[in-house]
Every structure is written in structure tokens, then in C-alpha cells.
Automatic annotation (TrEMBL):
Residues 8-343 form the Enoyl reductase (ER) domain. SMART domains: PKS_ER (SM00829). This is Alcohol dehydrogenase. The keyword Zinc applies. Pfam families: ADH_N, ADH_zinc_N. InterPro entries: ADH-like_C, ADH-like_N, ADH_Zn_CS, ER, GroES-like_sf, NAD(P)-bd_dom_sf. It is an enzyme of class 1 (oxidoreductase). The keyword Lipid metabolism does not apply.
Length: 357
């Protein structure tokens, strides 16, 4: 089969790799029908995630069909159409027993495309299949479902739930990429008074308005003033960091009000300054996290009912064998207008809502 292989910083290729096989009795082999690219994959290619060994197939999001299972798998069987979660759960360790699957100490957590071969391939081996794949309803299309592998649960759990968004809040989302847009969409479920999106790209600020932001601000034009004006000088109840660079985290810490929450979602590769000389007196709560995916069943039901704007986030589609072209488009989003790219679905099935700029 073929897969997209990381060979070191700046080096990758769609190439022949060995077919996956069942290694453990709780494994499943999935034939990939739809896959997408994550910002974390770009971080890996830049060398920001040194644990990823050269020779690893990338990817941690997919929809596909079960073709083989180990003898201990009970919840799915060959022929089932499933969502492959970005997080695998052993189900036995202390963290898994508490539903904190992202911190699994039994061999799970974020392993696909990180510690073991991932989903950007024609087939993938999924460990701990009973807790790491989810049967899909027939009415939910591949390009909708694949966005529930990672970005929607990540935005919802690490951003909205960790940030404790409540009715009447002012929520600031810094970064209007896919995860930021998913944070806007899921924050709206809690009836905040307003959502303010901050980004550098005009195309992403337009998208933020379409996903429900009442106000937008260019990150280069002192967004602190707009947020202060909207809140009577207090600042945001919740500031969600969805980029992963020092400047955006520090901006969130500046715009949050006393007693507010900063929810960091972005993947950081460099230190950020924590200004405790300003924050110590403000009763601010700062949270970080890797998604646990405990919300995936809920989000699947909501997507099936048409309550999540999944399809609107897909701007480009490709066949699997154009993986490198898809990476080029996604990695140059400022020029291409890309939000999410999906590979493996027929291109005519998805009409981009945010064409190239």
C-alpha cells in the first residue's frame, strides 16, 4: 500500500509502505476512505515534534471501513464504517477510567502518526479498537465525519469546556483556523453574549463571521482596544488560544478579565512568557490540554442532526494519491484560502465555501 511518510524535518513523501497487520488482539485494520491534514502534521514536518521518528506514516484523523479485527475486539466487525479517533484509549489505566484518554498510560493517547504509523495511508492499524473507533451512522457523510476525529472535539473540550464558556460571556478566540472556527461554532452552543475572533488573515476573519463570530479583529491592529471597548474595559470572560505561538498566548493573557479563563488549545514549539507580575492578582484560570475525545459520541449525534457546521469547513478535496499537493495547499493557507482539506472523497461532492483568495 501507499502512505505519507515523514523522513525528517522538511522531508516527506507519498510512497510504498508495508501493509499493516493485526499485532495485538485488540487491534483493528481500517481501509481509509477519507482522511484530513492537521496543523499538528505541519508542526511535525517542521521538526517541532521530535518524538516522531523518521519512517513514520503521518496522520491521526480518518473515516474508513473495518477489514480485520483481533480476537478481543467486540464493538466493531469487518464491514463496519467507522470514525478513527485521534486519541487511542487502553481503557484500563487510571486516566482512561476517568475518561482522560489523552493521558492514557497503557500505551494509548495520541499515538497514531506520532508513536505508530498513522492514517494518511490506504490502510491503518488502530490499537485498542473498542475504545478508539466509533461506528458511523449511514446518513453522516465522510467529509463531515472526518472532522470529528480531532478538530471538533479538540476545540470543544480543550477550548470551550476547559474555558467554561457560559451564557452571556464574551469569548475571544485568537486564531481563526480550523480549530478556532470549531471553537466558535461550539462556543455558540452555550449562548455567549458575543464571540470575537482575532487573526491576521482577512479570509479567515470572514470565515469566522460565517461560523458565528459577532466581531473580528486583525491581530496586527491592537485587538485589545476593540475587546476593551466591547466589554466596558473589563476584557473577555474566556480567551481561547488556537494558534500555538508565544504572541497569541500572551495576547490571550492580556485580554482576559479578572476571574476569567484562558484556554490554550494551540500546539506550542517555543516558550511563551507568563506575566505573573500582572496575572497573580486577577484570579485568572489558565488551562492546557490534549483532547481526550470523551465528547466524540455527543458530537457525532449533533453532526448527524445537522447541528455542527462541518461541511462548511471543507474547502478543498483531493484523491489520496495527491497527498503532497494537499499538504502544499493546506500549508499555504494564507495564499490558498484553505481551511480543511479532505482526501479520498470524490471531488465533486464538496463545494468550497471559502475559495482561494
Amino acid at each position: 500500500m501507499k502512505g505519507y511518510v515523514f523522513h525528517g524535518p522538511g522531508q516527506s513523501a507519498w510512497e510504498e509502505v508495508p501493509d499493516p497487520a493485526v499485532k495485538e488482539p485488540d487491534d483493528a485494520i481500517v481501509r481509509v476512505e477519507a482522511v484530513t491534514i492537521c496543523g499538528t502534521d505541519l508542526h511535525i514536518l517542521k521538526g517541532d515534534v521530535p518524538e516522531v521518528r523518521p519512517g513514520t506514516v503521518l496522520g491521526h484523523e480518518a473515516v474508513g471501513e473495518i477489514v480485520e479485527t483481533g480476537g478481543d475486539v467486540r464493538t466493531v466487525r469487518p464491514g463496519d464504517r467507522v470514525l478513527v479517533s485521534c486519541v487511542s484509549a487502553c481503557g484500563r489505566c487510571g486516566y482512561c477510567r476517568e475518561g482522560i484518554y489523552g493521558q492514557c498510560r497503557g500505551g494509548g493517547g495520541w499515538i497514531l502518526g506520532h508513536h505508530v504509523d498513522g492514517t494518511q495511508a490506504e490502510y491503518v492499524r488502530v490499537p485498542y479498537a473498542d475504545l478508539s473507533v466509533y461506528p458511523l451512522p449511514g446518513a453522516l457523510a465522510d467529509e463531515d465525519a472526518v472532522l470529528l476525529s480531532d478538530i471538533f472535539p479538540t476545540a470543544y473540550e480543550v477550548g470551550v469546556l476547559n474555558g467554561r464558556v457560559r451564557p452571556g460571556d464574551t469569548v475571544v478566540v485568537v486564531g481563526a483556523g480550523p480549530v478556532g472556527l470549531a471553537a466558535i461554532a461550539t462556543a455558540r452552543l452555550f449562548a455567549p453574549e458575543r464571540i470575537v475572533a482575532v487573526d491576521l488573515a482577512a479570509s479567515r476573519l470572514r470565515a469566522a463571521k460565517e461560523f458565528g463570530a459577532e466581531a473580528v479583529a486583525d491581530a496586527s491592529e491592537a485587538p485589545e482596544q476593540l475587546i476593551a471597548d466591547l466589554t466596558g474595559g473589563l476584557g473577555a470572560d474566556v480567551a481561547i488560544e488556537a494558534v500555538g505561538v508565544p504572541e497569541t498566548f500572551e495576547l490571550c493573557a492580556r485580554v482576559v478579565r479578572p476571574g476569567g479563563h484562558v484556554a490554550n488549545v494551540g500546539v506550542h514549539a517555543a516558550p511563551a512568557t507568563l506575566h505573573l507580575e500582572d496575572l497573580w492578582i486577577k484570579n485568572v484560570t489558565i488551562t492546557t490540554g490534549l483532547v481526550d475525545t470523551h465528547s466524540t459520541p455527543t458530537l457525532l449525534r449533533m453532526a448527524s442532526a445537522g447541528r455542527l457546521p462541518t461541511r462548511r469547513m471543507v474547502t478543498h478535496t483531493f484523491p489520496l494519491d495527491l497527498m503532497q499537493e494537499a499538504y502544499d495547499v493546506f500549508g499555504n493557507a494564507a495564499e490558498t484560502g484553505a481551511l480543511k482539506v479532505v482526501l479520498g472523497v470524490p471531488q465533486h461532492e464538496v463545494v468550497p465555501v471559502h475559495p482561494t483568495v
